[in-house]
User: Which sequence fits this backbone?
């Protein structure tokens, strides 16, 4: 969103993106841009299409139509067949990091192996260099000493931080977070948000789908409120989250005010 | 009723018994191995979504799963030659039936094992920029194979018992050997008790092994 304002092209740009599941529309023409180092937060009621949008950006779902541009690579959807397949698709995905709601760590690998898997397998990095990189990233997310633990031995918060390190290991140009704290026990949410906050301060380009409204207010440069597959309102966090213009945004946020107030006190 | 057991007389021809055990083990190992090869190949192919590839394989699996193995062996030995105008030797007809039968079950085991790995794991692999082949090799198969081992061991146990059907086409396995010894000694009680005991001794350790594997997979 801000990209155009300061004269730079946004590093990620989505234009008129549509995703239908059969006859059912999930995303109905969404455009957004993310500048380098910017944090964009997507909020909205469940089923509004925000997760689908994120998965479309990663091409885990093939968009029905529209275009996505990452850096210099522009991809148009809606032609015959898939826009990208095989190695080209894999190469595209390796430029974008994704963190899932349910972590999806590889259970047969240790934390260290999980983090080094991407660089070593997909990027052909030397194993030793991969292990060094992974150790550094685990330390960065506060998990030094947990290198040899298997996912089953980690708490949800630790597992999610390993998943963040695993995505970071690919040195992605953009990081996508899909409701990464929704599956966590409340007392474990804070440690994951702290890591994300640190990433935002470090200048990581991020798109975050979340229901943590106070957190969104803290880290977001821009907030998009989605409803029924379209962006109903967007703007700086201070405007959308504090003085929403759209009545639907207001109605949505009012449900969080109580819980949000409690959490910021605690 | 007082029956005088005479195991010595029945066991006198040890070479014959050893040959029977050897044939049973050879057929078990060979048809299980062949079945696994078929299972991996057909299972992987079934995972592709191309109907012209999957349809014939699904038909194969269902035909061999839903007809008695005895009929398959008899069919390959007595019926197929009428179609081909060329008869298969008994050892081949029976081996073919046993292998294709095992292959049908292995296909299902393999396919189900891969399918049991959740969508999330696939997506996590794709998100790291892995191609299908790498994802399969690094993420899906290492997890799926662990889940396939217990059903494979169970199916192999069944397969070893199924080799007794070699009897109908006179391949000298343990079962057919028993019938020969019975004909020579008129001692069916000893002969078939011994045969049953030998099958049991071969299979009981395998079932213990299967149980251990299952508890290990649970962990």
Assistant:
């Amino acid at each position: 969103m801000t990209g155009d304002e300061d004269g730079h092209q946004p590093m990620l740009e989505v234009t008129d993106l549509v995703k239908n599941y059969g006859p059912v529309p999930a995303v109905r023409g969404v455009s957004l841009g993310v500048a380098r180092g910017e944090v964009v937060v997507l909020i909205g009621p469940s089923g509004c299409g925000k997760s689908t949008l994120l998965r479309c950006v990663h091409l885990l779902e093939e968009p029905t139509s529209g275009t996505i541009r990452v850096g210099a690579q522009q991809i148009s959807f809606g032609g015959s067949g898939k826009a990208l397949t095989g190695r080209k698709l894999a190469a595209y995905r390796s430029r974008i990091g994704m963190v899932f709601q349910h972590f999806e760590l590889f259970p047969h690998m240790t934390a260290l192996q999980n983090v080094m898997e991407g660089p070593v397998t997909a990027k052909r990095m030397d194993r030793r260099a991969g292990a060094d990189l992974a150790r550094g990233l685990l330390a960065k997310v506060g998990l030094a000493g947990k290198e040899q633990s298997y996912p089953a031995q980690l708490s949800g918060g630790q597992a999610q931080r390993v998943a963040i390190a695993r995505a970071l290991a690919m040195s992605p140009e953009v990081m996508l977070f899909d409701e990464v704290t929704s599956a966590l026990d409340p007392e474990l949410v804070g440690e994951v948000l702290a890591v994300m906050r640190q990433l935002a301060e470090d200048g990581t380009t991020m798109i975050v789908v979340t229901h943590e409204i106070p957190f969104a207010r803290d880290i977001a440069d821009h907030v998009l409120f989605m409803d029924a597959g379209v962006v109903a309102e967007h703007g700086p966090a201070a405007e959308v989250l504090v003085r929403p213009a759209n009545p639907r945004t207001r109605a949505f946020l009012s449900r969080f005010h109580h819980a949000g107030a409690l959490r910021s006190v605690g | 009723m007082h029956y005088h057991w005479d195991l010595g007389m029945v066991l006198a021809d040890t070479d014959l018994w050893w040959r029977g055990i050897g044939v049973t083990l050879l057929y078990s190992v060979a048809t299980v191995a062949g079945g696994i090869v078929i299972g991996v190949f057909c299972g992987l192919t079934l995972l592709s979504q191309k109907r012209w590839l999957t349809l014939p394989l699904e038909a194969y699996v269902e035909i061999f799963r839903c007809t008695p193995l005895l009929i398959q062996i008899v069919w390959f030995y007595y019926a197929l030659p009428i179609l081909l105008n060329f008869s298969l030797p008994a050892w081949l007809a029976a081996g073919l039936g046993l292998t294709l039968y095992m292959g049908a079950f292995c296909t299902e085991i393999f396919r189900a094992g891969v399918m049991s790995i959740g969508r999330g794991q696939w997506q996590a692999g794709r998100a790291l920029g892995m191609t299908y082949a790498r994802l399969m090799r690094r993420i899906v198969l290492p997890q799926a194979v662990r889940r396939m081992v217990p059903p494979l061991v169970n199916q192999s146990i069944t397969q070893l018992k199924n080799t007794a059907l070699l009897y109908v086409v006179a391949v000298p396995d343990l079962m057919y050997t028993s019938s020969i010894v019975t004909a020579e000694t008129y001692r069916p009680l000893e002969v078939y008790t011994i045969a049953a005991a030998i099958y049991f001794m071969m299979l009981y350790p395998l079932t213990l092994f299967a149980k251990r594997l299952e508890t290990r997979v649970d962990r």
